[in-house]
Amino acid sequence: MADEKDLKAEKKKLAEEKKKFKADQKAQIKEAKKKAKEFADREASLDDDTPGGGFSMFLVTLFIVLIWLAIIVVLVKLDVAGLGSKVLAPVIGNVPVLSKILPGDAVTETDDLEAYYGYSSLADAVAQIQALELELTSAQTANATYVGEIEQLKAEVERLKTFEDQQTEFQRIKTEFYEEVVYADKGPGAEEYKKYYENIDPETAEYLYQQVVRKEAVSGEISDYAAAYAAMDPKEAAQIFNTMGSSLDLVGKILGAMNSAQRGAILGAMDPEIAAQVTRVMEPD
Q: Domain residues of the chain, as ranges?
């Protein structure tokens, strides 16, 4: 029984010694870290107090920077990977001092490029661009005006086409009416009309005959003119009609003898003002 108590007491003592040893060990480690920090702070303080230490560091840094700058200048001068001619020449090619580090070929190419485009300065190039922009604006304005006039002429052509369709329908109805009057069951008949014209006064008959012949001759000439102009290019025919300002009646008759497509193409190519006058001439009463 006594041996068992001694064994427990021994184990307890051993555990206390181990605990004390670990505590002492931690204290020593903490003290060592504290000493190391004190040594580091003292060394740093001594380095700062050393005369010329900061200036020496500045000189070393400056020397390293100068070495790198020299390396870059050599690379640019040798045009390694196009660094001088392709990368830096467009940027510093016109800078008086910095352009000296560029390869000779890069400066020549820049000068040739400027001579090729013919601009002595950036201001000249900007002025030329502004002039071109003004011309473009003027052209766009004129184009918008022409588009408006063309739309008006197209509308006029459509309006005239309606008149032409109405005229064709009227001619058809008139022909049917004449045929019904002459050949109708209760009409006088063709023989009666023949006798009437045979018994008419000779002078009146001659006058009517001359009028009919003259009208047919004029109509035949107009038809020939219309066929000739219809066979031409619409723009060429329009140019000729533009010069016939004193003979707009004749122009109207010639155009009136054409079909709507031919007439519309020529009117569309004519001067808008003259085309409007001719349209009024051709307008049915």
A: 24-117, 151-282
